[in-house]
Design goal:
Layout (H helix, E strand, L loop, with lengths): L1 E7 L2 E8 L2 E4 L6 H7 L10 E2 L4 E3 L9 E5 L3 H10 L10 E5 L10 E2 L9 E2 L2 E7 L8 H7 E8 L2 E2 H6 L4 H4 L7 E7 L10 E6 L2 E7 L7 H8 L10 E3 L21 E6 L3 E7 L1
Parallel strand pairs: 6-16, 8-18
Antiparallel strand pairs: 1-2, 1-5, 1-13, 2-3, 3-4, 6-7, 9-12, 10-11, 10-16, 11-13, 14-15, 14-17, 17-18
Helix pairs in contact: 3-6
């Protein structure tokens, strides 16, 4: 099932996407509240054409920072360490948080922030959304914590990232979290998931990987993090990017105004944005 948030006649609504048709929920609850309720609300009467609405990020305003993994693909670990030795991963997962006041929707603009960065980069990732609070999760319980999956572009300012010796500022500028086009419920995928993901910049394929190549799995992440902190239902956890980011090229291929970034994931859809 594909769950979406969208604008229709100036109103933010939610529903289920099937093909090019949306069945809206009655009362227009947020997807965050739907996830936390544990059950789908009733549908409103009728349906809407996808052409008559504007998709938003499925969770437009996440509560709390998005949790991200760095260097969770071995091939990206190599290119990241080549770019900056500080990014070298040892034997532990690399976690960081990404401040997101409002997630950028499909078709939305990625601000170039030229006053702050000259090294604007893309990272196509699969993120999962927690369907329940997670504390002291065992490996056998991890699967039941996953509500669904979405695409996230972890846009990054590499010069800020390296200058500050940590990821928070360089990953958290306004507009740096394109997300969507939907959340696909976990029952649509095998577990652990095997979701191919690709990224194109101006039509040129830059990234091509699959979630089966994650170094640390969903169970690894949930078991480790939930030992020391409670992860709330609705939390978005982005699991890292494969090789092929701009900083990994020689010379680097950073984004510039006018560039189009297209992230594709089988079974989820397309997240496409243009840099302004």
């Amino acid at each position: 099932m594909k769950l979406v948030t969208f604008l229709h006649s100036g109103k933010e609504r939610t529903g289920v996407l099937s093909g090019k048709t949306i069945r809206p929920f009655q009362g227009d609850p947020s997807l965050l509240s739907v996830i936390r309720s544990g059950a789908l609300p009733p549908f409103a009467g009728g349906s809407l054409s996808l052409e008559d609405v504007r998709l938003l990020a499925p969770i437009p305003r996440p509560e709390g920072d998005i949790i991200c993994l760095g260097m969770n693909f071995r091939d990206h670990t190599v290119e990241a360490a080549r770019f900056d030795p500080v990014m070298k991963r040892e034997n532990k997962a690399v976690y960081f948080s990404k401040r997101t006041v409002e997630a950028t929707p499909p078709g939305g603009k990625i601000p170039s922030h030229r006053d702050l960065t000259q090294m604007l980069d893309y990272e196509a990732e699969i993120a999962f959304v927690l369907g329940r609070d997670a504390a002291n999760v065992s490996p056998d319980e991890a699967r039941e914590c996953v509500f669904g999956y979405t695409i996230l572009n972890d846009v990054s300012a590499r010069d800020l990232q390296t200058a500050h010796k940590q990821f928070y500022f360089g990953k958290s500028l306004d507009g740096f979290t394109p997300m969507g086009p939907c959340i696909v419920t976990a029952d649509e995928f095998s577990y652990p998931p095997d979701i191919p993901i690709r990224c194109y910049v101006n039509g040129e394929k830059r990234q091509d990987g699959s979630t089966r190549h994650w170094v640390f799995s969903i169970a690894d992440v949930l078991c480790e993090l939930s030992r020391g902190m409670t992860l709330k239902s609705g939390t978005v956890i982005s699991m890292g990017t494969p090789a092929g980011v701009g900083m990994g090229s020689s010379p680097p291929k950073y984004l510039k105004p006018g560039d189009t970034v297209r992230c594709e994931a089988d079974g989820i859809g397309v997240l496409e944005n243009t840099v302004e």
